[in-house]
Specification:
The chain is built from 16 helices and 10 strands. The chain is an alpha/beta fold and 393 residues long. It has 2 domains: 11-326, Alpha-Beta Barrel (TIM Barrel); 329-389, no CATH class. It is globular.
């Protein structure tokens, strides 16, 4: 009997890919496509051949070209549904392309042209209906063109108000049509505009409470987006997780300071990927793990399959590393030693304010010189983490 691969993915892992990821033709700003175009149905079958995939996600125009005729749309939907049935793959998330077409050259929800904003909302309403037709429960918003090259051209306060107006409308549309969507906002610090509004996950976490329906709105952080700006992605995800706003997550990889590379998950930042996996596992994240990335430009479609399989396999490997870390007695002993003093009177006083507690805290004997001398074996802990990642511990 063949031994089961411990790193083999399964639908229970909730791994998803986008039509735009495995369907990426390898084009970049300096060169055209190197891979042929595949239909949405063919891409679903490609993921079915890879195995272990839970879902496939799409922008409206990934599935239905923007200028498709009604007959063409009907045939595409028919073929796509047939492929989903044949493979068992689901559609958990949908989104709208509000950045590619020339009409969005100055943004969608923040455009200076009110009729462009109306068209963007109309397009999103239709895309929401399309997503619901295939069972999507999460709706992602990436404001790819929401920004400016010069602040002379757009008032950033008015732009924020326009964005809020559109999102409030769409929230109410979803409610009125009983769509049941959760909205997830995806931040990006730069590219393709010179200066992007809502550049980080934290921007959106500050924006959400100003909406009419904050309860149905959360975030969809992407590893590459915070990393390309030199930020710590794990910390942004942790803030969203702690706030109860991590509705979806995009996994890929990225070298800091570079263009949006969308590398295969785990291919660059091993340590950051490990701590991301540990965060989501330790805090029992149950949502989709979406690979928003694509194969190298040099890849043919057999390598695209290798890219998809590798993305999932890397997560499973990191899962095993997290388990080792959490069970390692020396590591856990160090963590316990580092997180000290939680049961002392001064620490207890911090948990809930009272006048008596404040008075006791003011009177507490907290010697800063003694506190400063307490050991923090961070070098040892970091080295042990590295040894687990390198497979020697």
């Amino acid at each position: 009997m063949a031994k089961r691969d411990p790193f083999a993915p399964s639908p229970a892992d909730h791994f998803t890919f986008g039509l735009w990821t495995v369907g990426n033709p390898g084009a970049d700003p300096f060169g055209g496509p190197v891979r042929g175009k595949h239909s949405p149905a063919e891409l679903v079958h490609l993921l079915g051949e890879v195995g272990g995939v839970y879902g496939v996600n799409f922008h409206d125009n990934d599935l239905i070209p923007i200028d498709a005729t009604p007959a063409e749309e009907a045939q595409i939907k028919k073929d796509f549904k047939k492929a989903l049935r044949a493979t068992g793959i689901k559609v958990p998330m949908a989104t709208t392309n509000l950045f590619s077409d020339p009409v969005f050259k100055d943004g969608a929800f923040t455009s200076n042209d009110a009729e462009v904003r109306a068209y963007a909302v109309q397009k999103t309403m239709n895309a929401m209906k399309l997503g619901k037709e295939f069972g999507a429960k999460t709706y992602v918003f990436w404001g790819g063109r929401e920004g400016t090259e010069s602040d002379a051209t757009k008032d950033p306060v008015v732009a924020t108000q326009r964005f809020r107006e559109c999102i409030n409308f769409l929230c109410k549309y979803s409610i009125s049509e009983k769509m049941g969507y959760k909205f997830a906002f995806e931040a990006k610090p730069n590219e393709p505009r010179g200066h992007i509004y809502m550049a980080t996950t934290g921007n959106y976490l500050g924006f959400i409470p100003t909406l009419d329906h904050p309860e149905m709105c959360g975030v969809n952080p992407e590893f590459a987006h915070e990393t390309m700006a030199g930020l710590n992605f794990v910390h942004h995800v942790a803030q969203a997780l702690e706030a109860g706003k991590l509705f979806h997550i995009d996994l890929n990889d990225q070298e800091p300071g570079r263009y949006d590379q969308d590398f295969r998950f785990g291919s660059v930042n091993y340590k950051a990927n490990f701590f991301l996996a540990k965060l989501l596992i330790d805090y029992k994240y149950k949502g989709m793990k979406h690979f928003d990335s694509h194969a190298y430009r040099q890849a043919d479609y057999s390598e695209v399959k290798a890219f998809a399989a590798g993305s999932m396999r890397t997560w499973k490997i990191l899962e095993s590393k997290v388990e080792k870390f959490n069970k390692d007695r020396k590591i856990q002993g160090l963590i316990k030693k580092i997180n000290r003093g939680g049961n002392t009177a001064p620490a207890k006083a911090l948990r809930k304010f009272s006048k008596a507690g404040a008075k006791a805290l003011l009177a507490a004997d907290l010697d800063r010189t003694k506190l400063a001398k307490r050991p923090l074996p961070y070098e040892t802990l970091d080295q042990l983490t590295l040894e687990i990642l390198m497979g020697v511990r």
